């Protein structure tokens, strides 16, 4: 494995998630840039997950996004409910606790049945690009904080869009194709910024129902190309190992966890892995001792997708020997279809 400026963030049960210094790709010389791109690609090929440090998004920018997120979720429930998620085609708006149930593709039972038995313990706000009046974002209103929230979230959306394009450029360079090959697939910004709040919850909740044991967000894989995940200090993310166990992907200050999604795996002819993961009862911390409940957890996920109008065909260099495993598919049709099955 390419090891320039990289180490292991996670190493357990044959699950190796590298910690990669992305600054070497953003500003290093040609050799450092190529080696970093190779490390990024190999991380996705071997595990489907990587951690990035020196990724170009400042700590203050991330901290500001978390601050605005927590203030939003503290708004009265009726205000949030008035911003409800309204369609898979839009994928914008507020999702109340219990509305979504994340499950593996091969799990049986209807979404409605699964939600009734094991609803995910979270609420979220989905934000998309803000230039499509036919599928508008749902924003809070009525005060200065609401105006500031909209401004800050749209700015953060664009910041993450830039990193999405850079990570895809690294993948391209690692694959030995033109570095800008993915740019025409990522420049529209058909992505989703998801603010997530896992409310404080009694410890007994995780033991009350066998199906819900320790789970705040059920086992699943992501839909699109890649996901940028910003974690708070609480943790709770677990990644499925090759042995079938779930391994903690603990927060590392200043890093972003990046994972490949199902559409990128298909796009790469399965040379890149989309690995299942979940959010569980947070790891025990000293301050939790003697308490009956866990405090809230916040995270921010930026779900990246190829431009919706683009046809997804196997990437050059991934199918010449093995043949194409998948039929061509339109990006938007694929993503909206997966969202329709989730809500």
Give the total of beta strands.
Answer: 17
Q: Give the helix tally.
A: 10
Q: Between the first and last Cα atoms, what is the distance in angstroms?
A: 39 Å
Q: State the major sheet.
A: 9 strands, mixed
Residues in β-strands, percent: 15-25%
Tell me the series of helices and strands, N- to C-terminal.
Answer: EEHHEHHEHEHHEEHEEEEEHEEEEEH
Q: What percent of residues adopt helix (DSSP H or I)? A: 25-40%
Q: Name the structural class.
A: alpha+beta
Assign an overall shape: globular
Task: Provide the residue-averaged pLDDT.
Answer: 89
Alpha-carbon Rg, integer: 19 Å
Strand order of the largest sheet: 1-2-3-12-9-15-6-5-4
Enumerate the spans where pLDDT stays under 50 for 5 or more consecutive residues: 110-117
Folded structure, characterized:
By secondary structure, the protein is α+β, with helices and mostly antiparallel strands. Helices cover 31% and strands 23% of the residues. It has helices at 23-27, 30-46, 59-73, 77-81, 111-117, 144-175, 183-186, 205-208, 262-267, 331-340; strands spanning 6-12, 15-21, 49-53, 93-95, 123-127, 192-198, 201-202, 215-220, 226-231, 237-240, 246-248, 256-260, 277-280, 293-294, 297-304, 311-312, 329-330. Helix 2 (30-46) packs across helix 6 and helix 3 packs across helix 6. Mean pLDDT is 89; it is low at 110-117.
